[in-house]
């Protein structure tokens, strides 16, 4: 057999605003033999955002005209629509129940605003700066344990023409999120055509398999055996321009107004 | 700690048309302790397609007018474009180097036709019927080992607005590719909003981490510890309608002609 790795889920208490995620990870993993150098720690973005206090009480939200229009068009609570508008750089349209947001060059349903796993009457937004949060957690884990790890902030997202959600990396530190394979050769010595591997998304998907989305309270996963993807020169998770994206580039060629609907 | 699983890469010789993948898997895993009941076996689609003889010699291909137009518009070899046209139900457009194909309800670059990891002067198409191939391999593995496994045929694909390719399931047998979470409760007892988990895509992504895309010759991965996703009622990998897809639904609302360009 060739290379192998292991993935463990880490159960925690239900997180609340103000919780120190790094300290919780250190405590919960210590009982199971502790962290190792080279471990990759994947953290669910909703747990991180909650601990960081990125939650909004819906009854405090006053919906705008635009939000009320989206409620009519897409059957989405106008207060939720208002939060989504505030969290988005642009709204590209929607389907019933969801607005399609553009946020920092990434396309995502409802700007990542989540009603699941939030206290009654609240919604959780995406973490403000997932790369920065990953760096802070990395440093705190290193301080507490002396171990060099990789930190990945992950989300569960729908993909074009795929049924069901799978894992994506939305922030990282100490880890190569996208591996550049350009210049490498294939089995027959040709240059490779697939030039980039989304290592961070693959790791996030592996982590999601032990996390689940329901009442399992497993917001953290440890991936052991993939230390080859650790890097001292980690630049966080890069996004791509819509024009470079096969799906959106094609949609834009067909209709240049697609991304400028306001 | 909560649940955990392991992923092993399985190295093989370079596969050629006529190879028996199930027999090769049985042989290579036997040397490493053998397969277990509940193991999930992920197989790279390019290796499967090659073994099944789904390879085409480019010098035998005579490009049509349409293919010559795509060569001009998208800088793609007209013979490759011709193979892509034949493998597609429809071409939705493209970006330099790639045509965007619709095939059996799925949207994918160059209809999955791959020049990498094919013998010189050949291309590999997608396996003809990945669900059926998965079933055949399942039955042969069971015959050879007596073990009940899950079989996953996987590909590495680009996703909307993500940098880099990650793993997706394109065929399966004995395994639940998409888990329906509707009716389950979240941490606070609410109904879940994310209703479906792409277990097959998550498993494919985990497998891809031990396979790589270059000259590593590791076309198979064993995932051990995820037997909860095995199922006697496996219906293969379901696709979704473009109108149900957040990305394509929005693009179609903006421009209904997007999927009917011929």
From TrEMBL, chains A, B:
Keywords: GTP-binding, Ligase, Magnesium, Manganese, Metal-binding, Nucleotide-binding, Potassium. Its EC number is 6.3.2.31. PANTHER family: COENZYME F420:L-GLUTAMATE LIGASE-LIKE DOMAIN-CONTAINING PROTEIN, PTHR47917. This is Coenzyme F420-0:L-glutamate ligase. Residues 9-225 form the Coenzyme F420:L-glutamate ligase-like domain. One of its GO terms (molecular function) is coenzyme F420-0:L-glutamate ligase activity. SUPFAM superfamilies: CofE-like. InterPro entries: F420-0_g-glutamyl_ligase (IPR008225), F420-0_gamma-glut_ligase-dom (IPR002847). The gene is cofE. Pfam families: F420_ligase.
